[in-house]
Amino acid sequence: NAGVMQNPRHLVRRRGQEARLRCSPMKGHSHVYWYRQLPEEGLKFMVYLQKENIIDESGMPKERFSAEFPKEGPSILRIQQVVRGDSAAYFCASSPNNGYTFGSGTRLTVV
Amino acid sequence: GENVEQHPSTLSVQEGDSAVIKCTYSDSASNYFPWYKQELGKGPQLIIDIRSNVGEKKDQRIAVTLNKTAKHFSLHITETQPEDSAVYFCAASLQEYGNKLVFGAGTILRVKS
Fold this sequence. Notes:
The complex is a heterodimer.
Chain A: E1 5-7, E2 10-13, E3 19-24, E4 31-37, E5 43-50, E6 53-56, E7 65-68, E8 75-79, E9 88-95, E10 101-102, E11 106-110
Parallel strand pairs in A: 2-11
Antiparallel strand pairs in A: 1-3, 3-8, 4-5, 4-9, 5-6, 7-8, 9-10, 9-11
Chain B: E1 4-7, E2 10-14, E3 19-25, E4 32-38, E5 45-51, E6 56-59, E7 62-67, E8 72-77, E9 86-92, E10 102-103, E11 107-112
Parallel strand pairs in B: 2-11
Antiparallel strand pairs in B: 1-3, 3-8, 4-5, 4-9, 6-7, 7-8, 9-10, 9-11
């Protein structure tokens, strides 16, 4: 019974490149949440998705960031034209019941 | 929107002592309050949670208390062990799924042996 799977674990991008982060929820979970954790800070909500639908994107930056959760396949968090300030750990969580289960995260470094 | 404050930011205790971390929240509509433990380089791991219809919950050495009137909740760890050293986060949500979690800033707990 695999948990929430995120890949890659580490991602290095040069300024201006695109970053794609993947999240496969726990089996049977259809709700996915993305959070960002800046160094030595708490987790900040970004977006909540169900299959093929964005439910709450109130935490997403207005530009360069997008997320999807297609009918088949993992959820994708996409960051276009990355800047140094995007360097952070990005965590995905899934539900629907017994609370939220987090993956191990993707650590994005922009150089 | 919801705002969660967490204190202290760092906590050092001697092995075997108790540790208490406190959080306050602002939205009286919040009904679900989980606590997460995060070790270096890993994702947050749920250690205990409490719902608004319960005032206290205990799981072995870990307990959580909730005061809905005062809008605060606390994590209590008894008989601390070195492996309890980690960052602990409290969070609040409208319900246990289907809504975002709002996190506190975290508490670095160091258990000295």
